[in-house]
């Protein structure tokens, strides 16, 4: 978009011509744009995107050809879509106006009075479906020519093929009465199939010849059913149906659908459970034999126990209701799927997975056949939960990862046997940044997908992709030929739907080099002998590298449906996230070129490599202002939280933050920022954090442009714990900011999550890595409790911790602060009422950012003490 580009380019030229660029201000975020919600036409010839907040408080919609030519620019066009034939662009303009743009002809049409719209294939033709603001329902072509229209439509549902349509209309004579019509979209023929109370949750079978819906009368649900040939919809099941026990209520549940064979409907029966009734309603009784803490029952996940949902089926011919799960049983994940709905997986416990010591919390796992209800045991009385499960696309196999055996196990649903299919794999299955955890086996990267006909499956190891044979006959194979392991590059499916049949013989992989931080794409021949082919790698990235093992979302990466192109949103530290088009993921054409940072004193990022006193290698990122002068000395802020260096190519907006601080804002204003990686160590997480930060400070101290007397350390959550430990064990820092950090590890082991679960498992096995229960290793918990070393703290510290925090109990900071105050240590505590783990809301975030900046300015730049630091009662 030329005018947008020149706006920011002009700002840059102006600053270059007339002096130094201005620095970022706290209010810079108000005028900062965002390029987002891009899309690509199916033929790969057209792309569009939105520039949000340009002009300020408005949005600019841009349509381009993928050669880069701008075709259209509109203010505030929303909900845009390409037609499947790539001939039309449709969107909503303000004032309830539908906008239709003919791409080949470059002509446009507007239709007023549109409430909402969608595009749908009706037979072989795509149609425009829209609801008017007057409650009319309309089907038209892309020229606006009406095909069908109805008034007073409450809701509608098309069959999967688009050949049938069911609409609900308000009865004009009776306010609480509705009528439902069954419509053949090819002929326009209508039939009245229902009159009565309002309907909901309409579903069709796969062929679009049968429909069902729910009607609630006097608080009870009934399942209504209709197919061609019936006079009206009939009641298929209600509360009085045989097979539905007293106390159970019909609901749609998590799986409400026709079976694939069209002979049954899946639904749920709901039961409300009341536990531990006592004579005194104000009394709770906690028992050592409980499968879960009473606090879990009363917590924000309590409905998992209080409300039980039992998967059931009703046959369409005999109207027989069959309940498939009972009592404490529940469906495992998404194991019940349309293509394989003859079976699914059942877990037989409502206990808490993290209480491995609790015999009443152990789970068993079964395969359930939906036509008979028969259960086949797979794993019985497990103390360690199995979290990775997959039913193969054709239903031949069940595959799961056993954390005890650290292997994938395959169960043959026909031969009824199971075998270890990954025993010969010589790589680890764990995510690379958890390899040092006490329980790495509980973090497998996971299953990628299956080859055709369930012949083989692909799984991720730490870095590479392996092929496994579910029969165990063929040898395992490293499909990426150890490239990942050798170069420390993580290969991961870019956008494949995981656990399903791989959509193409050529699997597209994203690649992230954990050493250089380069990012790119490879193509893997999943069935032939062409192996792994590099498409491109560069110092940039797309997506979210906070979690390396994650698929690209549709905002950052899209593929044209006919495979004729890709739309990506690339970014770097000094390059705003913009859209690019590529035919082959080797070369890229710039589509959007918005660069707001060019008008300001921005930042640069450098990857640093260094060692600690034990010879361990580390990485970190140093951010410098664009106008950096090596002859000057700069204050430096260390921001810590486990692995940070992966963010080398992240573009940070100068937005208000609810934790830590905004990097570009402070760097633009004359600070250096260093993001060091923290190397964890089992039982010594605090000492390991200290050793990591000392190695980082020693590294930067060799540079004359670092003012070693003006250093600060800042961390939030786990980083808050690390900060608390560091400042109670060393005096290198002039200031510290600790957000929502642990100060007493003993309390972590006995504290509760917001869900009511105990945190003991988290203390042992996550970032804190105490590894053992409290009573088995009290010394580790004492050693990792910074509050117990409060006397050693000499660093002025600012805490932020809120009373609504359900991740880290606010008492962790409250207790620490009280101890420090009694010792007359220099400390302040910011507590935002009702706020959670971080600060939310513009007003609160602005206040928090002002206080963080002024605190750092006072201690690192010798600016006057802000008034809020002088206030006391």
Keywords:
873 residues; mainly beta; Thrombin, subunit H; 5 domains; eight-stranded mixed β-sheet; five-stranded antiparallel β-sheet; 13 helices; 53 strands; 36% strand; globular; disordered N terminus
Summarize the model shown:
With 873 residues, the chain is mainly beta.
Structural category is mainly beta
Number of domains: 5
Shape: globular
In CATH terms, what is the architecture of the largest domain? 3-Layer(aba) Sandwich
Order of strands, widest sheet:
46-47-49-48-50-51-52-53
**What is the number of helical segments per DSSP (H or I, 4+ residues)?**
13
**Can you give the helix content as a percent range?**
10-25%
Detail the poorly predicted runs. Answer: 1-18
User: For the report, how would you describe the main beta sheet?
Assistant: 8 strands, mixed
Q: Would you give the CATH topology of the largest domain? A: Rossmann fold
Computed Rg? 30 Å
Q: Output the CATH class name of the largest domain.
A: Alpha Beta
How many individual β-strands? 53
Mean pLDDT: 93
Give the N-terminus to C-terminus distance in angstroms: 56 Å
Q: Percent of residues in beta strands?
A: 35-45%
CATH superfamily of the largest domain: Alpha/Beta hydrolase fold, catalytic domain
């Amino acid at each position: 978009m030329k005018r947008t580009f020149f706006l920011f380019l002009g700002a840059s030229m102006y600053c270059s011509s007339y002096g130094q660029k201005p620095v970022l201000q706290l209010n810079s975020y108000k005028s900062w744009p965002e390029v987002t919600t891009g899309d690509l036409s199916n033929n790969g010839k057209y792309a569009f995107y939105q520039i949000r907040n340009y002009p300020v408080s408005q949005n600019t919609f841009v349509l381009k050809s993928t050669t880069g030519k701008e075709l259209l620019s509109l203010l505030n066009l929303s909900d845009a879509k390409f037609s499947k034939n790539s001939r039309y662009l449709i969107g909503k303009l303000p004032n309830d106006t539908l906008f239709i743009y003919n791409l080949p002809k470059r002509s446009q049409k507007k239709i007023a009075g549109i409430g909402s719209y969608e595009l749908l294939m009706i037979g072989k033709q795509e149609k425009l479906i829209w609801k008017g603001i007057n409650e009319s329902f309309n089907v038209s072509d892309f020229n606006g020519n009406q095909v069908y229209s109805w008034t007073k439509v409450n809701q509608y549902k098309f069959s999967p093929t688009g050949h049938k349509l069911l609409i609900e209309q308000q009865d004009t004579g009776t306010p609480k009465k509705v009528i439902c019509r069954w419509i053949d979209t090819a002929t326009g023929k209508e039939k009245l199939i229902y009159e009565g109370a309002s309907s909901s949750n309409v579903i069709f079978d796969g062929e679009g010849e049968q429909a069902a819906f729910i009607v609630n009368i006097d608080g009870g649900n009934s399942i209504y059913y209709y197919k061609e040939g019936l006079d009206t919809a009939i009641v298929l099941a209600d509360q009085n149906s045989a097979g539905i026990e007293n106390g159970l209520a019909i609901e749609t549940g998590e799986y409400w659908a026709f079976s694939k064979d069209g002979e049954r409907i899946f639904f749920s029966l709901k039961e409300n459970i009341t536990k531990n009734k006592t004579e005194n309603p104000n009394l709770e009784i906690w028992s050592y034999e409980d499968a879960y803490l009473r606090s879990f029952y009363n917590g924000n996940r309590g409905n998992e126990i209080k409300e039980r949902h039992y998967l059931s089926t009703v046959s369409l011919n005999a109207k027989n209701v069959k309940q498939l799960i009972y009592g404490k049983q529940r469906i495992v994940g998404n194991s019940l799927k349309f293509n394989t709905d003859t079976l699914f997986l059942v877990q037989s416990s409502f206990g808490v997975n993290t209480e491995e010591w609790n015999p009443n919390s152990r789970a068993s796992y079964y395969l359930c056949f939906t036509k008979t209800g028969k259960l086949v045991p797979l794993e019985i009385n497990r103390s360690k939960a199995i979290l990775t499960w997959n039913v193969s696309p054709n239903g031949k196999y069940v595959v799961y990862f056993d954390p005890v055996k650290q292997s994938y196990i395959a169960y043959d649903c026909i031969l009824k046997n199971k075998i270890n299919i990954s025993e010969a794999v010589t790589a680890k299955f764990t995510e690379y940044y958890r390899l040092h955890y006490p329980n790495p086996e509980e973090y497998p990267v996971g299953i990628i997908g299956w080859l055709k006909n369930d012949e083989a499956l692909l799984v991720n190891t730490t870095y590479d992709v392996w092929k496994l044979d579910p029969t165990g006959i063929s040898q395992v194979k490293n499909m990426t030929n150890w490239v990942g392991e050798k170069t420390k590059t993580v290969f991961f499916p870019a956008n494949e739907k995981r656990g399903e049949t791989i959509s193409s013989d050529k699997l597209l992989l994203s690649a992230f080099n954990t050493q250089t931080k380069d990012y790119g794409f490879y193509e893997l021949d999943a069935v032939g002998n062409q192996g792994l082919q590099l498409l491109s790698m560069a110092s940039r990235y797309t997506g979210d590298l906070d979690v390396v093992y994650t698929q690209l979302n549709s905002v950052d990466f899209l593929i044209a449906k006919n495979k004729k192109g890709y739309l990506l949103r690339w970014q770097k530290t000094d390059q705003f996230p913009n859209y690019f088009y590529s035919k082959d993921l080797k070369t890229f054409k710039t589509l959007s070129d918005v660069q707001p940072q060019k008008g300001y004193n921005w930042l640069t990022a450098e990857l640093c490599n260094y060692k600690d006193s034990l010879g361990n290698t580390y990485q970190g990122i140093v951010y410098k202002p664009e106008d950096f002068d090596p002859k000057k000395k700069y204050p430096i802020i260390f921001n810590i939280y486990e692995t940070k260096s992966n963010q080398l190519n992240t573009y940070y907006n100068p937005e208000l933050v609810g934790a830590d601080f905004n990097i570009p804002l402070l760097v633009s204003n004359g600070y250096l920022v260093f993001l060091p990686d923290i190397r964890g160590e089992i039982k010594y997480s605090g000492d390991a954090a200290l050793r990591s930060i000392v190695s980082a400070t020693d590294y930067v101290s060799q540079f004359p442009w670092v003012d070693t007397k003006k250093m600060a350390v800042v961390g939030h959550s786990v980083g808050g714990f690390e900060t608390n430990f560091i400042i109670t064990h060393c005096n290198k820092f002039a200031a510290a900011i600790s957000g929502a950090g642990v100060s007493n590890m003993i309390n972590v082991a006995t504290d509760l999550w917001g869900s009511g679960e105990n945190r003991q498992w988290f203390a042992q096995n996550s970032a804190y890595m105490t590894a053992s229960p409290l009573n088995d290793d009290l010394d580790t918990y004492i050693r990792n409790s910074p509050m117990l070393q409060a006397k050693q703290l000499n660093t002025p510290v600012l805490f932020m911790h809120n009373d609504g925090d359900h991740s880290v109990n606010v008492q962790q900071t409250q207790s620490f602060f009280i101890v420090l105050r009694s010792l007359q240590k220099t400390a302040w505590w910011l507590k935002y009422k009702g706020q959670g783990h971080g600060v939310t809301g513009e007003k609160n975030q602005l206040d928090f950012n002002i206080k963080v900046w002024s605190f750092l300015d006072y201690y690192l730049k010798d600016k006057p003490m802000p008034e809020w630091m002088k206030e006391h009662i």
